[in-house]
Amino acid sequence: MKTDKDPTLHQRILGEIEGNIVSGAWPPGYRIPFEIDLAAQYGVSRMTVNKVLTQLAKAGLVERRRRSGSFVRQPQAQSAVLEIQDIRNEVEQLGQPYRFHVESRRNRRARQDDRRWIDVAEGGRLLEVRTLHFAGPAPFCIEERLINLEAVPAAADASFEAHTPGQWLLDQVPWSSAEHRVQATGANAEIAALLDVAAGTACLVIERRTWSMQVPVTYVRFTYPGDRHTLVARFTPQS
After folding, report:
1. Strand partners, 183
2. What digits encode the pLDDT tens for the residues 140-166?
3. How buried is 222 (Cβ within 10 angstroms: 0-12 exposed, 13-18 middle, 19+ buried)?
4. What's the whole-number average pLDDT of the chain?
5. Structurally, what CATH architecture does the domain formed by 7-72 represent?
6. Residue 214 — left, alpha, or beta (φ > 0 → left; ψ -120 to 50 → alpha)?
7. How far does Cα 229 stand from its chain's mean position?
C-alpha cells in the first residue's frame, strides 16, 4: 500500500496536475481543486498536496492566493532585450503550440511622418504588414512592421504563409545594426480586441529598427499584454 510519503505518489500527483496545465485542459485562470479535495482524491495528506502545489508555484505554473485558493498562472515569456528573438521560440519555450496570422498588408508610399520610425524619404516604397502571433488558442502579441522595399524589393510579393515577416527578413537580409526601444502603454480598443484583453490593459511595447550597412531595412513594433512577457538583459562591467 502506498503512503503519502511515497515519492512515486508525489511525482504522480505533480505529473498529473502539471499535465493538465501544460495541455491546456486547465487554462490560465482555472481554479485548481482545493487541497482538501485533492488530498481526498489521491488518498494522501493535505501536507503532501501542499508540497506539490508549492513546487508548481515555484516553477511558475501556479499562483497561490491567500484565502482564495490556487489558480493556473498565465504563462510568461522571457526574451533578451539586446537580441533579436524568434517569437516562435518564445512561444514554444512556454510549452505552447505556435501559429501566426497575417491580419493585413499593403504596399504604399512613405509619408513624412514615417520618418519617425524608418529613415525612408517621403514617397519611397514601403510594405506595411500586421501579424498576430498565438500561443495555443490565445493571442500572444501583435507585430506591426514597415519594410523598406528599396532595400528589400522581394518583400513586396512575399506570401508570408510559411514564415512570418520577421523570419523571412532574417533569411533574406543580413542586418548589421539594430536599435531597441521599450515602453509601456495602455491597449486602445483596436489592440485590445486583437489581444483579447480589456481596453486600457497595460501592455509592453518593444520597438526595433534594423539596418544593413547603414541602409534602413525595417521598423517593427511588438505589443504584448504586460503580464505575459518579461525582458532580460545580461551584461558585463565596462573596462
Report:
1. 205
2. 999 999 999 999 999 999 999 999 999
3. buried
4. 86
5. Orthogonal Bundle (1.10)
6. left
7. 6
- The pLDDT value recorded for residue 4 is 47
Contact in structure between 232 and 78 (CB atoms under 8 Å):
yes
Q: Hey, what CATH class is 77-232 in?
A: alpha beta
Q: Could you count the other beta carbons within 10 Å of the beta carbon of residue 125?
A: 17
- For the chain, give every residue range classified as CATH 3.40.1410.10: 77-232
One-letter identity of residue 174: P
Q: How many other C-beta atoms are found inside a 10 Å radius of the C-beta of residue 41? A: 12
This prediction has a pTM of 0.65
Three cell numbers at 144? 506591426
Whether residue 164 contacts residue 87, with contact meaning beta carbons closer than 8 Å, is answered with yes
**Which helix or strand (DSSP H or E) is residue 186 part of?**
strand 177-186
The ranges of the chain annotated as CATH 1.10.10.10 are 7-72
